[in-house]
Amino acid sequence: MSNECNIVRDLLPLYAEHMASSDTAEFVEAHLKGCAACSAELARIREPQPLYAEHMASNDTAEFVEAHLKGCAACSAELVRIREPQPAWKGSDAAALRRIGRKMKIRRMQTVVMTALFAMALFVSLAAMLDAPVYLPYREGRVTLAKTQDGALLLTFDEAVKDFRCTVYEDPNGGDFYCCDVSTWTSAWAERFAGERGGLSAVVATEQEKPIRVVYVPNDGTALVSLAQYDPHAEDPIKEDVRVLSGVELPRLTLGYYALFAIAACAVLAVLRFAARKRAACRVWIERIGLYPIAYLISHFAVAGIDWATYSLVRDFARIVFLSLLLYGGLLLAHGIRRQRRESRAIDG
C-alpha cells in the first residue's frame, strides 16, 4: 500500500461524512478513480448497517422497523434518501461550518484586542501612579531669580525639582503689575528612572514691560510664599521679598464631582437594567452604556486614588479619560464575548 493510499484512507471517514473541504474531496476522488482497494474501503464505510448493530435501536425495534419497511414504499424511499451519498461540501453543511469558522476567528481577534486594551490600561495606570506629582515645599534656594540680557526674568530651580509650572497673569485686583505663580514637584518615576535631571530653568516673558511679582505656591495646604518683585526698568531689577502670605492655594474638587456623577449613573442604569430584564435588546444596550461609568470609576481610583481633591486638575482628568476609554473598549469586548458564549451554551443546551 502506497503512502498516498494511507493518506486517502485517513481522509475517507471525513469524505464519507461530507466533512472534507472541496480541495480534499477532489484529491480523494481523483485517487479513488485509479485505486480499487481504496474504493472498496469507501464502499465498506458507506455500507448501511442494521440499526441494532450501531446500538441505536434494540433488536425488537429493528425487527419492527424492517417489517414495516417491507410494506411501506414511502418509508423505504425515505430510508434510501437518508443513506444516499451526497456531494462533499455542498449545501447548508458547508455554509454552516464556514460561519462557525468565521465566528471563531472573530472571537479570537476580539480576545487579542481585549487583552491588548487591558494591557495598555494597566501600563497607563502604572505610569500615572509613578508620574503622580509630589509637590515640594518652599525652602531657601528652591527658586533663584535673575535678569536675562533681553530684559526678561529668568527662574532657576535647584536639583530637587524635576518639573515645574509657571503661571503668569495680570493682577486681578487691577494693579499695574503681573503675577507669576511658581509650583515645583518631583515624582516616583523621576526619582527612580529619570537619572540626575535637575537644574531646570524658565524664562518669564510678558507682553508689556511691567513689574512681575513672583509667588511660590506649595500646593500642600500651606501658605503661599512671596519671593521677589521684578522690575525691568529699575536699577536693581530684582527686589527680594521673601515672606509668608496669608493666602492658601486650595485643591480642586471637580474630580470628586465627576466621580459622584459616575456613581449616580451606575445606580440609574442598574435600575433601568432591572426594569428591562425581560427585554433582551434593551438590556444589552443598557449594559453597554453602563460599562463606561464603571470604567471611569476604575480609572479615577487608578489615577487619583481615594483622594478626590487635586492640584493638577487638567493633567489628572486627561489621564482618567484616556484610561477610561481603554478600559471601556476592553470591557465592551469582554461583554460581547461573554454574551456570545452564553448564547452558544443556550443553543447547545
Task: Summarize the entry for a quick read.
With 349 residues, the chain is α+β, with helices and mostly antiparallel strands. It has helices spanning 3-16, 22-32, 36-46, 59-71, 73-83, 92-130, 188-193, 254-275, 280-303, 313-348, and strands spanning 134-135, 143-147, 153-157, 163-170, 178-186, 201-204, 212-216, 223-230, 238-248. The chain folds into three domains: 3-94, no CATH class; 99-129 and 253-348, no CATH class; 134-248, no CATH class.
Describe the structure.
The chain is of the alpha+beta class and 349 residues long. The chain folds into three domains: 92 residues, no CATH class; 127 residues, no CATH class; 115 residues, no CATH class. Strands 1, 4, 5, 7, 8 and 9 form a six-stranded mixed sheet that branches. It has a three-stranded antiparallel sheet with strand order 2-3-6, with no helix packed on it. Helix 1 packs parallel to helix 3, helix 4 packs across helix 5 and helix 8 packs antiparallel against helix 9. The chain starts with a helix and ends with a helix.
Give the low-pLDDT segments.
51-55
Number of strands: 9
Q: Give the end-to-end Cα distance, rounded to a whole number of Å.
A: 45 Å
Which sheet architecture does the biggest sheet show? 6 strands, mixed
Estimate the mean pLDDT confidence: 84
SSE order: HHHHHHEEEEEHEEEEHHH
List the domain count as a whole number: 3
Oligomer kind: single chain
Indicate the percent of residues in helices: 40-55%
- The outline comes out as elongated
Taking Cα atoms only, what radius of gyration do you get, to the nearest Å? 39 Å
Structural class given helices, strands, pairing? alpha+beta
List the total number of helices.
10
